[in-house]
Design brief:
The chain is about 25% helix and about 20% strand. With about 180 residues, it is of the alpha/beta class. Strands 1, 2, 3, 4, 5 and 8 form a six-stranded mixed beta sheet that branches. Strands 6-7 form a two-stranded antiparallel ribbon. Helix 2 packs across helix 3.
Length: about 180
């Protein structure tokens, strides 16, 4: 067999247009990608230092609304006492008072959905009816409480989604949330 010699050399491939396209696409794709998604929940820290003097005496004592979040439920506190807007439940002598909003399943909440969030919002709505000018609530979570429970408590204490205001928006309850440390036992 006789071979024919190749007289024509194979043409060299021009890669410059492809490299230009890749050079333009890489920065565009990097700008379009979302690597981290952040969400912000507005909150304030408790004030440090002595309280500021008040010029005039208010008609009502300040509410100082606090929510003590423990594994047994949520206790609504106001001005150093437990608040029960519909009256305190009877307690036998020597027993401790149950939380204002106990867990759905009994003595200990097993998860985020075991807290009675609708009952918390209803009770806070009753308190808001008595103190319409107050807008602050202090969350006092126990050290074993999960972050999801704290966020849900913030959401349900800010607004009542079941009852709409005159503008059709959810009714505002206590929109300014302060997070403190160490639940009261």
């Amino acid at each position: 067999m006789h071979r024919r010699p190749h007289s024509a050399e194979s043409p060299e491939l021009n890669l410059v247009p492809v490299m230009n396209l890749v050079t333009i696409l890489i920065p565009f794709l990097l700008m379009a990608a979302e690597f981290v998604s952040l969400a912000v929940i507005d909150s304030t820290l408790p004030a440090i230092g002595p309280p500021q003097p008040v010029e005039e005496e208010p008609d009502k004592p300040p509410l100082n609304l606090s929510l003590a979040i423990t594994e047994s439920g949520i206790t609504v506190l106001g001005a150093d006492s437990v608040l029960f807007p519909e009256g305190a439940p009877p307690v036998a002598e020597g027993e401790t008072r149950p939380p204002t909003v106990p867990c759905k399943s009994g003595d200990k909440c097993t998860g985020v959905d075991d807290y009675d969030w609708e009952e918390l919002t209803r009770i806070l709505g009753l308190i808001k009816d008595e103190y319409p000018d107050d807008e602050n609530v202090i969350l006092v979570p126990d050290q074993r409480i999960k972050y999801e429970v704290i966020v849900k408590a913030m959401d349900y204490s800010r607004e009542d989604r079941e009852h709409k205001g005159p503008d059709g928006e959810p009714r505002l309850l206590f929109p300014f949330v302060v997070i403190a440390g160490g639940a009261i036992n």
